[in-house]
Amino acid sequence: MGTLLKGYKPLFSIRFSSFPNSLRSVQLRTHSFNNPKRRNPIRRCFSSLIPSSQPLINGTTLDKMDGNRQPGSPSSDLWLHNTMSKKKELFRPKVEGKVGMYVCGVTAYDLSHIGHARVYVTFDVLYRYLKHLGYEVCYVRNFTDVDDKIIARAKELAEDPISLSRRYCNEFIQDMVHLQCLPPSVEPRVSDHMPHIIDMIKQIVDNGYAYRVEGDVFFSVENFPEYGQLSGRKLEDNRAGERVAVDSRKRNPADFALWKASFMRNNSAKEGEPFWESPWGPGRPGWHIECSAMSAAYLGYSFDIHGGGMDLVFPHHENEIAQSCAACKQSNVSYWIHNGFVTVDSEKMSKSLGNFFTIREVMDLYHPLALRLFLMGTHYRSPINYSDVLLESASERIFYIYQTLHDCENVLSQHDKGLQESIPPETLNVINKFHNDFSTSMSDDLHTPVVLAALSDPLKTINDLLHTRKGKKQAMRIESVAALEKIIRNVLSVLGLMPTSYSEALQQLREMALKRAKLTEDKILQKIEERSEARKNKDYEKSDAIRKDLAVVGIALMDSPDGTSWRPAIPLPLQEQQVAAT
Fold first, then answer.
1. Model confidence over 419-434: pLDDT tens digits?
2. Which residues are bridge partners to 567 per DSSP?
3. Separation of alpha carbons 581 and 575, rounded Å
4. I want to staple 113 with a disulfide (CB 3.0 to 4.6 A). Which of 91, 251, 356, 523 is the partner?
5. Which pTM does this prediction carry?
6. What's the fold here for domain 79-361?
7. What residues pair up with 89 in beta bridges, in sequence order?
8. Are 539 and 546 in contact (CB under 8 A)?
9. Torsions phi, psi of 142, nearest 5?
10. For 127-148, how does the pLDDT look when each residue is reduced to its tens digit (9 = 90+)?
């Protein structure tokens, strides 16, 4: 067996800056099918990093760094569930103050569904929270733009595979913009990294872990005794035809392709398939090798976090471990993190099952941040069942959050001077409790549902101060409102739930509620006028019927001394369904 490679050297270094909240534009590059010697510059993280932005929340002052903590060092312990050990572990990065994270990206051949949205919202939350704790994070998320599914779809549409994939990569990026997922540090594509993939396959072959059959190269799982360490599967469990293609040329049915020849056994080319020259002849890489090569190119063989959906544990991540270790014995990922499925009627949502909803389809009816809130309302490792009632509930909840903060904004704009620096003890208690709930829950394996539930107390306190007779009489009322609004805003920023404008988000939520109800605002105002007239005439039966008819389609009427207004709500039949289910 040949000498094992000690490490994968980057070609270039680049300085990384802090990541802005505004999402950057994407530049698409041209691709070369047949020049493996053309290497794009590789930007290795952590060569000379600029410190990340300061944490948004501090238990003592809300907006200042802890005086006892050095800049760039983490502000609290973080526990993450490691799929490899099957337990929660205290997070300790390999390099103090810095985190390398690789998340497997989409295979770009169609619009992405909300199962994809869950993956990337989950790791966006982790990315944001690591940055909040003070870590400098290099977040690498790839695009698979060379794959059997892409080639098959391209043939259906009579389109070039790389062009097709480029188009859907761009569509995916737009989905992530709407969901307020921060752009990763690097977004490598398979077609740009063919030299690195070929180099790694050569090393695996040289080290005795792979073999050539005609123009194909297969990884030999029997030569890697640790195979199955992540998934817990035994080699004999990997039966032919399950997850791995049946091929009589393989030494073991579980062996998987590192390189696929672009020519058939009769030496005729496979029509419509992109190919690259290699030591084994023209071809293209197998699926699994790409992530091993690209993660090594940007993060090295030893880095902190590797993530993805639970469906990637086997075979993809299991095969990645085998490949990377076969190429470099020092290969090591400290934490393997996987999110649970989005299910429909207790089945995993997937394109192969045909039971999926694209992100675009959902965002056509629901605000993107309502979808984000829905995805964060269940712990990331648990399955989440897609349902209209949960999306409606998320939409109603986020409207309430933004309406409360918008009311704060209006009141505070009238008192922007002369505010005292102190706040009443009862307000400070609410703030401290909320901060502690946030820090404790997020540091306990990202328990976002607990944080979202903890928003209730500060939001209720704000509404009491703004709208109740007792609250309006409280001392330092405006100071309390300002302090509460600030910590809520900062927590929402860490969670990726802060809109550009409260008023704009509220208007968008109203418009989407109208679309779901198949009504116009003029029609609702007409119904409000009819109801007011009925009440004047003491026709309460008609008045109640109008209110109920609107409630059925998700429009709630609110009476106040200033008149009647409306807001989005969970449609009455879905509310009744919720009650029946409890």
1. 888 999 999 999 999 9
2. 556
3. 10
4. 356
5. 0.88
6. Rossmann fold (3.40.50)
7. 80
8. no
9. -90, 165
10. 999 999 999 999 999 999 999 9
